[in-house]
Amino acid sequence: MLNHETEATWHYHNGTKHPNGMLLSRFHVYHPSHRPTPYKIYKNVPQVDLVLDKTPIGISALDAISTSDNIHNDTIPDIRTLGRILYFSSGITKKIKFKGLGEMDFRAASCTGALYHIEIYLVCSDLPGLGAGVYHFDPKHMKLDIIRLGDFRKFVSNATAEEPSVTKSPAILVFTDVFSRNSIKYQSREYRHAFWDCGTILANTLAITSAHKISSKVITGFVDSSICNLLGLDINEEAPITIVPLGESSQEAPDLSLQEINLDAIASDYEIEYPEVNAMHESSSLLTETEVASWRHQITTQRTESAKLIPLGGKIKVQEPLEDTIIRRGSTRKFSLEPITLDQLSTILNQATSGINSDFANHELLSDVYMIVNAVEGLESGSYHFVKEKNALEQLRKGILRHASGNLGLDQDLPYDASVTIFFMINLDKILEHFGNRGYRVVQLDAAISAGRMYLASYALGLGSTGLTFYDDLVTNFFSPHAVNKETMFLIAIGKKEKPSGF
Ligand SMILES: Cc1cc2nc3c(=O)[nH]c(=O)nc-3n(C[C@H](O)[C@H](O)[C@H](O)COP(=O)(O)O)c2cc1C
Fold first, then answer.
1. What is the pTM of this model?
2. What are the tens digits of pLDDT across the range 460-471?
3. Nearest residue CA, atom 12 of ligand 1?
4. Residues 22, 15 contacting (CB under 8 angstroms)
């Protein structure tokens, strides 16, 4: 199936809808004791030590997620900075003991089921403190596994059809997804989770990179098989999903020949295959550099204007540095029913939806943002559509909608109790028209980066948040007619955390 044969996306998307999409088994059982090892383990490869440096550099999370000012294109990250970028993206930030399961590592960004199926690789030239090579980030030991030694950046540049930021970058990050580590729990829906869970990591990566004033760009167009060959991946098991070039250097990448590598590595404890995941990946793959070059273009979204708008509040400033916010972040397990303020909601919405520097859009969020307001001081309860250009909301329905909020979020307490539930929705047909099946990857990722930023923004403001899953078609029906023909890409709930009893 080729990228422009977009019935593949509809087959996958409709087939993985809750409740009981046809590609999901109702009888599937996952027990946490089946949780796969959440790390890729390379055996017998030499490693490079990374320093774990958590010192704040003085930029708040709210500024880091939304500012691209003062970025110096020519900054070349050294090994210490790279260690920080990797740690604050995907490092271990806390350990929690669970009865019967032992201690579990939790990471810098949220991840469906805490299954941590996204791996990060680095392809770099000689950098201060680190020789040119292809490396894999080992978060458990804060080390880099050496996959290849030498400057192989040209292979990434070629795979992206010489995308300028990639071609000039001295240090390129490649994010991959290990399918079975997540599908063991979520079955075929895994391929959505790949982009959700990569997006929340990317929100952190872009924020810490921006705090260091290093330029970055999210690249989604590349020849998939070329990156697999470079990293030595088995495409049926682990696939590259995003590339992020960092900084800029004048050091030209040499022409090297690529030897096949066959390293001894375990990406997942289980060899389970959900053919629809592999099929969706294959049908959204780009096969040649020519195809990548003609695929790549940035789109601008056209939104319909509404006459009656409700102005949002002002922007709150916080002092807490980004690094501390990332370390404190966690998914809220219980919201109190207390309201948040309109200024808090406005700050989160505005700071988190400023879009990203990417090869598909120019600092503009592709999805539309819808929400159910359960408890926000100064804002009537009801459902809304966010109109970013006007810093305003369009009211769709008035009334107490907590039951709907809980119901749409898979009948869980979290979306019922939260102050607000935020839905990222998009007309998928239009996206597929522009980008083919690859557009499915793009829009899932784009929404997830914004939602990842909302996680950081809400924690920066002393609030709580959690990603949630949802009943796809019920969400569309609920926000229609405004959201007619739109599909949900991400759901996040925000509110005040319930204080543990005794406080
Ligand atoms: C896209 C997404 C969907 C999620 N869905 C749910 C959910 O439906 N219910 C829930 O309790 N937690 C949900 N979570 C929260 C994860 O369980 C949580 O991120 C994971 O356990 C890691 O914990 P941490 O976020 O506290 O680091 C979701 C997280 C993400 C990123």
1. 0.98
2. 999 999 999 999
3. 468
4. yes
- Closest approach atom of ligand 1 to CA 448: 1
φ/ψ region of 201 (left if φ > 0, alpha if ψ in -120 to 50, else beta) reads alpha
Q: Which of 219, 232, 478, 459 is nearest to 347 (CA)?
A: 459
| Rounded distance from Cα 454 to ligand 1 centre (Å) | 14
* Tens-place pLDDT, residues 336-353: 999 999 999 999 999 999
Could you tell me where in the chain the CATH 3.40.109.10 domains are found?
7-260+268-293, 310-495
Ligand 1 centroid – CA 110 distance (Å): 6
Out of 3.40.190.10, 3.40.50.2300, 1.10.3720.10, 3.40.109.10, select the CATH number for domain 7-260+268-293. 3.40.109.10
**Under the phi-then-psi rule, with left for phi > 0, alpha for psi from -120 to 50, and beta for the rest, what region is 485?**
left
Which residue bears the tokens 């000039």?
Answer: 168
**What is the atom index within ligand 1 of the atom nearest the CA of 469?**
8
* Cis peptide preceding 500, ω within 30 of 0: no
Q: How many CA atoms lie within 13 A of 112 on its CB side?
A: 29
Q: How far is the centre of ligand 1, averaged over its atoms, from the C-alpha of 162 (Å)?
A: 36
- Ligand 1 surroundings by CB, under 6 angstroms: 106, 110-114, 196-197, 200, 330-331, 410, 412, 414, 466-469
d(CA 58, CA 27): 50
Which residues have CB under 8 Å from 404's CB, separation 6+? 372, 383, 478
CATH number (3.40.109.10, 3.90.190.20, 3.40.630.30, 3.40.50.720) of 310-495 reads 3.40.109.10
Which residues have CB under 8 Å from 31's CB, separation 6+? none
122, 134 contact by CB (below 8 A): yes
Count of CB atoms within 10 A of residue 282's CB?
A: 18
Mean pLDDT over all residues of the chain? Answer: 95
